[in-house]
Write a structure and sequence with these properties.
The chain has three helices and ten strands, in the order H-E-E-E-E-E-H-E-E-E-E-E-H. The protein has about 150 residues and is an alpha+beta fold. It has a single domain, classed as OB fold (Dihydrolipoamide Acetyltransferase, E2P) (Beta Barrel). A hairpin with a 3-residue loop joins strand 4 and strand 5. The longest helix has 11 residues. The radius of gyration is 18 Å and the shape is globular. The protein starts with about 25 loop residues before the first helix and ends with a helix. The relative contact order is 0.12.
């Protein structure tokens, strides 16, 4: 996909034009993301302090005991949104669901351990270890191109 940006000082409002030979799922998804006006802000709570969490700081988001948490290098925050809502906010290929109760940031993965038993162990940059459930192994392999 080619991306072109033109600077025009007489332009009063930003306009995005997609030129394509056909409408594909990729084009439809791109148009949808460009036209969304929804906020991509994730707000975490820790000791009655509300913090806006930058996506780049997120290591993983997980559900435990009916609550949703976001882990960063320095803190773990509780979230008000459900896991599927966070998944919609984050979208894209950088964040991937690895189980019914967890989403990870692929840029924060130290390594994957593909054992002979079929279990995929994920070591995160924070030192935490998590596992890909069998149901999501195919999706992880697709994202990783293996």
């Amino acid at each position: 996909m080619e991306v072109e940006i033109r600077i025009d000082s007489s332009c009063s409002e930003t306009k995005v034009v997609i030129v394509t030979s056909e409408i594909t799922d990729e084009i439809t998804e791109l148009a949808k993301k460009l036209s969304e006006n929804t906020s991509r802000v994730i707000v975490g709570y820790n000791n009655d302090i509300m913090t806006i969490i930058d996506e780049d700081e997120l290591i993983r988001i997980y559900a435990e005991n009916g609550k949703v948490f976001a882990e960063t290098e320095s803190e773990t925050y509780s979230l008000k949104q459900r896991l599927y809502e966070i998944e919609e906010i984050l979208g894209g290929k950088r964040f991937v669901r690895i189980s019914k109760s967890e989403i990870i940031n692929l840029k924060k993965v130290r390594h994957f351990d593909l054992s002979l038993t079929g279990v995929v162990c994920v070591k995160m940059s924070s030192g935490s270890v998590t596992y890909v459930s069998r149901r999501y192994v195919g999706a992880i392999k697709k994202v990783l191109g293996i």
